[in-house]
Amino acid sequence: MALFLTAMMLSGCSSSKKQPADTPVATAPDTADPAAASNTPDVTKPDVTPEVTDTPASADAPDITDAPASTDAPDITDASDITDPESNGVITVGTDAATISEAIDKAAEGDVVFVPKGIYTETFGIEKNGITVRGEEGTIIDGEGMELNDDNCVAIYIKGKDITVESFEIRNFIIDGPSDVCPIGIQVAKGSSKVTVRNCKVHDHGFNYDYSTDDDNYNAHGIYVSGGVNKQTSDILVEGCELYNLHLGSSESLVFNGNVVGFEAKDNYIHECDNIGIDAIGYEQDEDNENDSARNGRIHGNYVTNICSDPEVNPTYDSMCADGIYVDGGRDIEIYDNFVTHCDIGIEVASEHQGKVTSGINVHDNTLAYNNSWAGICFGGYDPEETGTAKGCTIRNNTVYNTESYCLVIQYACDASNVIEDNILVAQDEGIAYGEEFEELSKGNTVRNNRLTADLAEYGYPENTQITVTNVTVDEEIRSVRIEY
Hints:
single chain; mainly beta; Pectate Lyase C-like
């Protein structure tokens, strides 16, 4: 009897639902419609994430035009969400204030700063509690021609509590050649809490690489949420944002770094970037402090595609090893209902710091396809002599399809508290359904009830089922993988 499995993302669903055994379906919320795919470099893990603490200086009065340049990116702003500029408590740029910064200066707790559509050549900081700064479709912060330096390299800087930033497009914050300056689209500073970044775009951002020098000092971010070892950042939501065409060097598109507690990355669309899509990091600032770890987070409903650190494009790396979604030293994080395709690595759970453990990571109900450079799912540290390991993690009910490299590979992780179960792992052509990199240091995990195109009995895991697949259909438009066997 032929069996079918369809893993997909469906509009309006916020969690996975199991269907009858002969036709299981994994579902997830829809995100922005993708723009047409383009050729993109492959991406690698970051070595360093810069610390940016200074509030960016505001530029002179912005240049506002009625016709912002268009992009091919999908429209992710719902006009019905825009507050009426005529309502009480709204300060409108261009009417009530000459610049965005001036409007923020006038705002009191509970107010909305409304920024009408137009092109603004102004960076700004928000350091007042309880305000919303809201654009609309066509509200653009443009860094073209702007001189970026340590005091002016962040387009939107947020420091405080109960702050919302919505519906801004940020573009052209670019530095030529290597630099100590780190361009950032949106930064949430250490010590902030209850911050929402919603329906924003960051694109065409980062660096123009200089391939004639060996200097690889390149770090840029699309959205950077930072927590200090002794200054906790908490309750952060990044939702419905689009990040694309980012040239990041050693850094990440969307990152929660350090002492960030209670974060959520939801329904974002991240594509065509030359380093990691979404990252939750620990132990970069202080390896000896357990506070220095992103934790208690959820990463769900995101569409991440074409993330690659090809060294021919990104000179800070020597291999294609960029993750769509990566947890490096984080803990107690749920990763679910994501659709990840055409990345070097789809989802990775690891610790880059020797002696440190990534724990409590629950990877479930994700759909992954064509993450062919290294693996669909990669689990454990990449070098037992230099990195940490993973314990108490779960990889459950994911669908992974690859035509090259591994569907699932175990690196430095060897503890029975790690549970790998109920996954569908399908490898065709040059793909490999399952692998272990470090012999005994990759064994001892609990591996059971998986269906895959390999016999796991030879690895010592007889409680799995080898399947023969007759057809696979990947539909990236509706974000589904249908497997017939």
